[in-house]
Specification:
By secondary structure, the protein is α/β, with parallel strands linked by helices. Helix content is 27%, strand content 31%. It has a 7-stranded mixed β-sheet with strand order 15-13-16-18-25-24-23.
Length: 416
C-alpha cells in the first residue's frame, strides 16, 4: 500500500508504477483505492463509473477495469457538497446524507471489494488518500490505515521532498499514528527528489533512529505525461519557440474530466491556456468549455467573471467554440432540473447552440463507438452525464445518436 504525508505526494503515480512493475514480472495485479475524491472519472467496459486514476492503474497492470478497484468515488459539486458513486452507480440519496452517516454506510462496499480482489489476484496495490495523519477525519476512515489493517498491507509512506519539509512530514505522520498502525509501515519513500542524493546527508539514518523505519526509496522528480486527479495540478504547457495556436479552456470551479485535454497540453504546436477571467481569452484561437460536475454553479461563475459574455461575443465573431458534456449543456438555450440533481430550478444557457437539456435522476455511463458527420470518421470514448439533450432545428448533427451538435462554428459533444 502506498500512503502519503499529504495530497499530491505522488501516491497515484507510485501505485501506477508498481502495478506495471509487478505485471511485468508475471503477477496478476489489481489496483485498489477504497475512496477517491475527484471529478476525473471514466467508464468501465461494464458501463460503470470509477476514478480515472484507478482506470490508469488497471491499464498499467494490464487487467480489465473493475469498479471494485474504486468502490467509492466522491465527486465534489461545491465546497460542502459532493455526489457519491458506490460500485459504479451514483447514489443520490446517500449523497444527501450528512458526512458522518455516509461513512458508516460506505465501509461495507469498500471491505467487500477489497477482500474480493485479494481472493482473485496475486497482488493488490492499494493507494491511500490525503494523509493518514488527518486525525479529524480518522473516525470515519475508509481509505487509509483502516484499509491497511484490514488487508494487513505493507505500507510505504511517501513524502513530496520537492515541497520541502519531507523529514518533518514523515516523522510527524508516524507520530500521529497508533502503534498498531505504525506496525503496518514497512518503509518510507522520498518522492520527487531533484539533484544529487548525497545532499540528503545523514537524514535517512536520522529518521530511522527515531522511528525504526528504513527509507526504502528515493524517487527522482519525473515529468510524467499522465493524468492527474486534482485541478490543483492544472498548469499551462511549457512555452516553445515558433508560432503556436492558443486554445483557451475555461477553468470553472466544478471542472471535471480535465485530464482528457492532456493530449493538447503536450502537443508541441499548441499552447493551452486555462482561462479564469475574461481577459484570459485574449489571443485565443479557439475556446473549450469542459465538463462540469455542477452546471448551474459553473454557469453562474461564467457570468460573474465576464467569461459568458466574452464567449458569446467570440462566437458571434466566428471563433470555434467547443463544449464537452456539461460544456455542451451550458452552450444550449436552457437546462432544466426538475428532480433537484443540481439546483431544483431551470436556468438559461449561453444560447449559442439550439439545444435544451433536462437533468434526469439516472446517470448515463457507457463506452461508445460513434462517427463524425459528415466524414464518418470513427470515434471511441465514453459518456457520463445526467443530462438528456434535445436539439432544435438550427442544431445540426455532429456525432451519431444525439451525441453531438453543431451550429455556425459552435460545437457540443457528450463524448469524452
Amino acid at each position: 500500500m502506498i500512503q502519503g504525508c499529504s495530497s499530491n505526494a505522488g501516491k497515484s503515480y507510485l501505485s501506477t508504477g508498481l502495478c506495471r512493475y509487478y505485471a511485468n514480472r508475471g503477477y496478476k495485479v489489481a489496483p485498489f483505492k477504497g475512496q477517491n475524491m475527484s471529478n476525473n472519472a471514466g467508464v468501465t467496459p461494464a458501463g460503470l463509473e470509477m476514478g480515472r486514476a484507478q482506470l490508469l492503474q488497471a491499464q498499467a497492470a494490464r487487467v480489465t477495469p473493475d469498479v471494485r478497484m474504486n468502490p467509492v468515488l466522491l465527486k465534489p459539486e461545491g465546497v460542502d457538497r459532493s455526489q457519491v458513486v458506490v460500485l459504479g452507480r451514483a447514489d443520490l440519496e446517500l449523497s444527501r446524507l450528512p458526512w458522518a452517516e455516509r461513512k458508516r454506510l460506505m465501509w461495507g462496499p469498500v471491505q467487500d471489494s477489497l477482500h474480493g480482489l485479494l481472493a482473485e489476484y496475486d497482488l493488490v496495490v492499494i493507494e491511500g488518500a490525503g494523509s493518514p495523519a488527518e486525525i479529524n477525519l480518522k473516525e470515519g476512515d475508509i481509505v487509509n490505515m483502516r484499509v491497511a489493517v484490514e488487508a494487513n498491507a505493507l505500507v510505504l509512506l511517501a513524502a513530496d521532498i520537492d515541497r520541502g519539509g519531507a523529514f518533518a512530514h514523515l516523522l510527524g505522520t508516524w507520530h500521529c499514528l497508533e502503534q498498531h498502525e505504525r506496525n503496518q509501515i514497512h518503509g518510507f519513500v522520498l518522492n520527487k527528489f531533484r539533484g544529487d542524493a548525497r545532499l540528503l546527508g545523514n537524514g535517512l539514518q536520522w529518521l530511522e533512529r527515531r522511528t525504526g523505519i528504513p527509507t526504502l526509496g528515493v524517487v527522482p522528480y519525473l515529468e510524467l505525461p499522465l493524468p492527474d486527479e486534482d485541478a490543483y495540478s492544472l498548469q499551462p504547457a511549457p512555452q516553445a519557440s515558433g508560432e503556436r495556436a492558443t486554445i483557451a479552456i475555461l477553468h470553472a470551479p466544478a471542472i471535471s474530466n480535465f485530464d482528457e485535454f492532456d493530449a493538447l497540453v503536450h502537443e508541441p504546436s499548441i499552447t493551452v491556456h486555462w482561462a479564469r477571467q475574461a481577459n484570459d481569452l485574449k489571443g485565443a484561437s479557439a475556446v473549450i468549455l469542459p465538463g462540469s460536475k455542477h452546471v448551474a454553479a459553473d454557469l453562474a461563475w461564467l457570468h460573474e467573471t465576464g467569461l459568458a459574455e466574452r464567449v458569446q461575443a467570440l462566437a458571434q465573431q466566428g471563433m470555434t467554440i467547443l463544449g464537452i458534456c456539461g460544456g455542451l449543456q451550458m452552450l444550449g438555450r436552457e437546462v432544466r432540473d426538475p428532480h433537484g440533481v443540481e439546483s431544483s430550478a431551470s436556468f438559461p444557457g449561453l444560447g449559442l447552440l439550439d439545444v435544451e437539456t433536462e437533468l434526469a435522476m439516472s446517470k448515463i455511463t457507457r463506452q461508445v463507438a460513434t462517427n463524425w458527420f459528415p466524414s464518418r470518421e470513427p470515434l471511441l470514448g465514453y459518456e457520463i452525464h445526467h443530462g438528456r439533450t434535445r436539439p432544435g432545428p438550427r442544431a445540426k448533427p455532429l456525432l451519431e445518436d444525439g451525441l453531438g451538435y453543431e451550429q455556425e462554428g459552435v460545437l457540443g459533444v457528450y463524448l469524452h
